[in-house]
Protein 1
Amino acid sequence: MKIAFFDSHKFEQKVFGSENLSLLHEITFFETRLTKQSASLASGFPCVCAFVNDRLDKDTIKLLSNSGTKLIALRSAGFNHVDLSAAKEFNVKVVRVPEYSPHAVAEHTVALILSLNRKIHRAYNRVRESNFSLEDLVGFDLFRKSVGLVGTGKIGSVLAKILHGFGCRVLAYDITQNPRLAEFGVEYVSLGELLRLSDIVSLHVPLNEQTHHMIDQKSLAQTKPGVMIINTSRGALIHTQALIQFLKSGHIGYAGLDVYEEEEGIFFENLSEHILHDDQLARLLTFPNVLITSHQAFLTREALSNIAKTTLQNITDFETRNVITNEVSVEKHSKK
């Protein structure tokens, strides 16, 4: 099948090329993001492959459908950037990668926690300038600290087991509880109780109408003074302006963000020679107790390989057997 591959990066082109050797799809890589302005590039392609910052709104999907696209293959687990109602209206199927490596994201979460706590990023920069002072580098033992996990799906469950190994008290909130986590000492509590009791709060839920800005001024006011907030899920789970206010007041002690609600057009790009026009992101970058990575939690060799295999297999199944594997549809994922 002819595939228009949007928002492509060198690190994934090689992996997809290797995994495609046996499947023989005809892949054309486009570095540009998929929007209604760039949708014309997909003319004549029955399949487009999209990433998290591509904009698959109604206008874009209509243009894709009119130019012959029948399948949108997401190379991500999240699908909040896709208008599923429009996909149904224009008879375009949507498939995704429901999981690729929960370990990759869980381990990156721990990396953010440890780096913030022990101030690794600050110490690294100091030593590079021959400053070997230990002033203002004091951290804390992770042992016996309370870590609240908002969401215990595959990623949250892996993280719970890792934190159990550190000797943490692991609290959790989820509308669907995982009883198997009891052997790792996980305690399910209400969201309010989790916010009140946790030294560290880490987010691991999808972005939808119910979770949008779930961490806002009201919820942050319930947290412990000095709390650490970690987000490796979706940027809009956190109300950025509220986060900045609580950082300025000193109530939030640390923030580790691998995602940002206005990351589209910023993350995955080299803007080192440009002025950063996003004032909120620029403000976040001024805080010494904030560590931001550019949506790289998924970025391991194992995860990339799994993403490529699943994405290409989804396309092959659709093409050869008309079987819609890992389909995302408005019926299956209707917003309540």
Note: Residues 102-292 form a domain with the Rossmann fold fold (CATH 3.40.50.720).
Protein 2
Amino acid sequence: MRTSLIITTYNWKEALELSLLSVFTQSQFPNEIIIADDGSDNATREIVESLAKKSPVPLIHSWQQNKGFRLARSRNKAIAKATGEYLILIDGDIVLEQHFIADHILAAQTGFFVQGSRVLLNEKSTQQALQQKKIRVCLCAPGIENRKNCLRSSLLSSLCSFSSKKLSGIKTCNFAFWKKDAEAVNGFNEEFLGWGREDSEFTARLLNNGIRRQNIRFNALAYHLYHPMNSRKSLPINDAILADTCDNQLVWCDKGLSQHLQGT
């Protein structure tokens, strides 16, 4: 099974560097890493080019022009470039525990997408991690929230992971799915402009199309760096798009992945 790791980013090269360095120390590598860049400046391009020389697998920079928050389009472009059958999606402010990729590969099942959890670092812990270019997190470490999510255990994971058809709690900062399932619903909906709900709406169409949700616990550990919240001004419009998808059980969006797959 070929796997592609997709990392979203926008103008935070320090966090992206830390995220990539955590990928380079994985116990099992993805077949490729794709940076889904929503219009960052040259500083991000330079750090990607520098780290590409050290990467154990191909590191691809998928960039689009900065025309505001267009995360859905950025992700679709990266998905279109992916050669993997199975796609693991994280954000550029996520740092991985060393077995993250291996755990996701182990959790992959036909007919399911996977929702993972995260450990939240506070501002002080985040600054320390960025300065040291490493994260040292344990169950008793100060400056973290969601403390239980620090614990990696195959036994607890087998006991506590579960499947569902619910939409609540979706966060694509630690998320995995089959590329063919994304193609079947036309990927992320590019009608979403500005922060919010594009991940939930994509997930809703997967669920509407018969793909079930697998919640993975105590495996695939991810550490989320602190940052100020994004603007919520687009939420009313984005909530309406999500509601329409849910109310009408939609499985397809008109403006999505297919326009980037042409010619790839």
Note: The first strand starts at residue 3 and ends at 9.
